[in-house]
Structure formats: C-alpha cells, structure tokens
Amino acid sequence: MIKSKPFKVTLTNKYSIIIPNTVADLFAEKNQKRVKVEASKNDVIISFHAALKKEKTDNYRMYFSNAKQKALDIDFGDTFSIQLFEDQSKYGVEMPETLNAVLSSDYDAYELFENLTPGKKRSIIYAIMRYKNVQTQVDKSIIMTNNLKRGIKDLKLILKGN
Fold first, then answer.
1. Strand ranges inside 76-132, DSSP E
2. Most exposed of 25, 76, 116, 155 (fewest Cβ within 10 Å)?
3. CA 69 → CA 52, 79, 162, distances in Å?
4. Strands 79-86 and 34-41: what pairing?
C-alpha cells in the first residue's frame, strides 16, 4: 500500500490545500487519483477520502471543506498535518451500510448503480451519508433505487420521491 509520511500543509485559500509534488507524485506514478487522508491539529484527527487534482501549474491541490476546517478548528493560513494513503475502497469513499444493504437486496438497482460513472456513484454515496438518521438513509436509498429503475440519473432528482 502506498502511503506518505505525515507532512505539514497550509490552508491556502477558502477550500483547498496544496500537496507537495514529492508527495503527490508517489500516488500519480501509480495512477492513484483518489487518496484516503488523515488530517490532524492539536490532537484532533479526521479521516476522509479526497481527489488529488493536478493544476496547469503542475501543483497538486486537494479540496478541504468548511466542515473539515471546523472539525480541526483551522482558518485561512493555518498550518496542520496530513498523511495520505492509497485509497483501496471500491468507490473512492466508504459505502454506508444502509445503502449497501438496499443495493444488495435489489440486484437490478445494484446493476444500474454499478453502471453509473464513478463520480455519480460517489455523489450518491455522499448524498446518502449526509443524513444522520439511519432510517432516513434507508428511505433515501430506496427512493434512489426506484428512481434509477425509472431511468432518473440526475443527481438533483435521484433522491426525491414522486
């Protein structure tokens, strides 16, 4: 498994950090565009999945959301530590048990889901994960599978009921 040593980064704009080329190249050489990340500051550690985006300037940038900034209590210009790991998940993000259970119980919906682009799959997974209540996750997963069977793939509509 590919992994970096922990290194320091700075929040360089409102929502991103620059990953040093020496680190990003470890993953790029193996065609790993998505990574698992552990970020830490003052004994607080968060884990998440992210994409390494290569810019025209040959820098690599990673999105770092407001929620992650709040979790680590960081602001623009703050320095903190991160470590990157090879993303070995199937979808580039961990699949919620609720969505996995619904897809496992409906093979047709599973096949339709698997035929979506990797980005659409991740978007659906993230959308389901936003709901904290397990029953709501199940309900939204069922709505999503029914919508897929109706041919609805628009992310704005896929979790909406009739």
1. 79-86
2. 76
3. 18, 11, 36
4. antiparallel
The pLDDT value recorded for residue 56 is 85
Domain residue ranges in the chain: 7-86, 97-149
In angstroms, the first-to-last Cα distance of the chain is 45
CA 161 to the chain's CA centroid:
25
What does the pLDDT look like over 74-92, one tens digit per residue?
988 899 999 999 998 999 8
* Residue pLDDT, tens place only, 6-47: 999 999 888 899 999 999 999 988 888 899 999 999 999 999
Give the count of alpha carbons within 13 A of 155, CB side only: 12
DSSP-based helix, strand, coil % in the chain, nearest 5: 35, 25, 40
Across the chain, mean pLDDT equals 92
Nearest to 42 by CA among 84, 78, 16, 85: 78
Give the contacts of 66 (CB within 8 A, at least 6 positions apart): 15
Say yes or no: domain 7-86 is CATH 2.60.120. no
pLDDT for the residue 161? 80
